[in-house]
Amino acid sequence: MKQAKKIIYFWKPALCLLVICVLCFLPGNDFPSVAVPNFDKLVHMGMFGGLSLFVISALKKMQLSKFKAVIITLSVVFILGGGIEILQGLCTKTRSASLSDLCADMTGTVLAILFYRYFLEDKKIEKLLAP
After folding, report:
1. In this structure, what DSSP letter does residue 63 have?
2. Exposed e or buried b for every residue in 45-76, given b needs 16+ CB within 10 A?
3. How would residue 131 be classed by pLDDT, with cut points 50, 70 and 90?
4. Which tens digits make up the pLDDT trace of 71-99?
5. Residues 6+ apart with CB under 8 A from 81
6. What is the gyration radius of the CA atoms in the chain, in angstroms?
7. I want to staple 109 with a disulfide (CB 3.0 to 4.6 A). Which of 19, 52, 116, 130 is the partner?
8. DSSP alpha helix (H) spans, the chain
9. CA-to-CA distance for 45 and 22, rounded, in angstroms?
C-alpha cells in the first residue's frame, strides 16, 4: 500500500507532461508568430522548468535527500526532453528534433531547481506543488 500511495505524488508532473506533449506535437503553424527572437526557447525553458518544479517537489515529498531529488529530476527531464525531441523529428512533418530545444529544456530545469532550492523549499508555498 505504501508504494501505491507514493504514486499519487506524481499526478501533477504527469498532467504537466501531458500538456507539454500535446503542445510539442501540435503543428508549428498552429501557434501565433511572436516578434521576440528565440521566443520558442523561452517557452521550452518555461514548460520544462514547470515540470521540474513538480517533479522535484514530488520527490522531496517522498523524503528523498536533496541530492537524490536533484539528480533524479535532472535525469528524468533530460530523458523526457530528449525523447520528445527525437519523436518530433521522427513522427511529425511540421516539427523537427532540435538540440537547442533540448538545451533550453535543461536550462529551464536547472533554473527551476535553483528557484526551488532558494525560494520554495521548506516554505509554505511548496505545498502548492506537491499533493
Report:
1. T
2. bebbbbbbbbbbbbbbbeebeeeebbebbbeb
3. low
4. 999 999 999 999 999 999 998 888 889 99
5. 48, 101, 102, 105, 106, 109
6. 15
7. 52
8. 2-7, 11-25, 39-61, 66-91, 99-115
9. 16
- Cell numbers representing residue 68 in the block: 537524490
Q: Tell me what pLDDT residue 126 has.
A: 64
Q: 115 is written with which cell numbers?
A: 528557484
Give the CA distances from residue 64 to residues 71, 91, 131, in Å, rounded to whole numbers and listed in that order.
Answer: 11, 36, 16
56-to-63, 71, 77, 128 alpha-carbon distances in Å: 11, 9, 10, 13
d(CA 114, CA 63): 19
Are 65 and 31 contacting, i.e. CB atoms less than 8 angstroms apart?
Answer: no
CA distance 13 to 91: 24
Q: How many residues does the chain have?
A: 131
8 A C-beta contact, residue 52 and residue 117: no
